[in-house]
Design a protein that fits this description.
The chain has one domain: Rossmann fold, CATH 3.40.50. Helices cover about 40% and strands about 15% of the residues. It is built from 8 helices and 7 strands, in the order ααβαβαβαβαββαβα. Strands 3-2-1-4-5-7-6 form a 7-stranded mixed beta sheet, with helices on both faces. Helix 3 links the parallel strand 1 and strand 2. Helix 2 crosses helix 8 and helix 6 crosses helix 7. The longest helix has about 30 residues. The radius of gyration is 17 Å and the shape is globular.
Length: about 220
């Protein structure tokens, strides 16, 4: 059985994992690994959103990037049969008009600051967001915390500033690394970008399990 080992690990929660609906915004170096992890773990309803095509410069870190010139969501749709694909540019207008309500968890793996702030304003309670994974080499330094408790991550600092400026008073979980950037340009290492994606997946599964436990507690009361 394909998911036998996942079912053994997660027990009764596995049925909830199978029924969960997860939205992944951006399927690049971080988001593609989050997709792979969720798919292999058995999440039954995954939707991906992206607008880009693969470039040769993506091949150091992105799943599917051997298909240079092709649309990312189309390639990943072939690699992961059954997922849902939305070919769209994730900007403020798209976020404003998109219905996030059907999803249990929303994974933000994009790097556009304005769009990230708009996403947080729209669906913070169900959001798990990736901060800066580029220019770093040590995946063991990755942490998960409230966006307001992130530290040592220049990209997360920018996000906190823009959230405050936008009057955002909510909260959401952020995946970040306080590791000092190793270069100034957009250098990247799949050992970190991929690990960010796996961390997003792990926290998504944890949230799905926790929500199942909360629902069970409510039913018993």
């Amino acid at each position: 059985m394909r998911y036998e080992r996942c079912r053994t690990l997660f027990g009764q929660s596995f049925d909830t994992i199978r029924e969960a609906k997860v939205l992944i915004l951006g399927v690049g170096g971080v988001g593609s690994f989050a997709l792979d992890c969720l798919y292999r773990t058995g999440v039954g309803d995954i939707t991906i959103v992206d607008f880009d095509r693969y470039d040769v410069t993506n091949q150091n870190r992105q799943i599917g990037s051997e298909h240079t010139g092709e649309v990312k969501v189309e390639v990943l749709g072939r690699l992961y049969p059954g997922i849902k694909k939305i070919y769209a540019k994730i900007d403020n207008d798209w976020v404003e008009n998109f219905d996030f309500s059907p999803y249990d968890v929303v994974i933000d793996a994009i790097d556009d600051i304005r769009a990230k702030v708009a996403i947080a304003q729209k669906c913070a309670p169900k959001l798990i967001s990736s901060m800066g994974s580029a220019r770093k080499c040590d995946p063991t330094k990755i942490e998960a915390a409230s966006i307001w408790k992130t530290h040592g991550d220049p990209f997360a600092k920018k996000i906190r500033y823009e959230l405050k400026k936008a009057g955002f008073s909510g909260d959401f979980l952020a995946i970040f690394s306080p590791e000092t950037p190793r270069c100034k340009d957009k250098g990247s290492f799949v050992g970190v970008t991929g690990a960010f994606g796996l961390a997003l997946c792990a926290k998504t599964i944890e949230r799905i399990e926790n929500e199942r436990c909360s629902d069970s507690d409510t039913t018993l009361q």
